[in-house]
Write a structure and sequence with these properties.
The chain has 126 residues and is of the alpha/beta class. The chain contains five helices and five strands. Helix 2 crosses helix 4. It is globular and about 35 Å long.
Length: 126
């Protein structure tokens, strides 16, 4: 599984936790700079971020991917819309949580959220 990381660095402890949560080993982590310039076109900046992930059309649709989303809300919304377009479904995402009482503040892997399964469940309430 490939982790596309748009957020804080992933530690070796996080990798162990992610492997346990997914039941599959992470084979690669691709750190993608998610900084945007809010004074310029955000959509084209995010499209460039996804292009920088280095995946071709077939890989977007076939490789097992896990996404660690950025915390900026509109960046995340745009990324999810673009990922759905490229992948044909919503990806699984990594939820990080703050570790209590740490200095400096630290975030750790908490859970994997299957967005496609959530979408399908929500459709039943439509």
């Amino acid at each position: 599984m490939i982790l596309l990381n748009f957020a804080h660095p992933i530690t070796s402890e996080d990798i162990e936790k992610i492997n346990h949560l997914t039941g599959k080993p992470l084979t690669e982590i691709r750190d993608i700079n998610a900084q945007i310039d809010p004074q310029n076109d955000v959509i084209s900046q995010i499209e460039a971020m996804l292009d920088n992930a280095g995946l071709n059309q077939q890989e977007w649709q076939t490789l097992p991917l896990l996404i660690n989303l950025p915390s900026l809300n509109y960046s995340t919304a745009i990324i999810l819309a673009m990922l759905h377009g490229r992948m044909g479904y919503f990806p699984a995402v990594l939820r990080m949580r703050p570790e209590p009482e740490t200095i400096p503040p630290r975030f750790v892997a908490a859970e994997i959220i299957n967005l496609q399964a959530l979408r399908e469940k929500a459709r039943k309430k439509r």
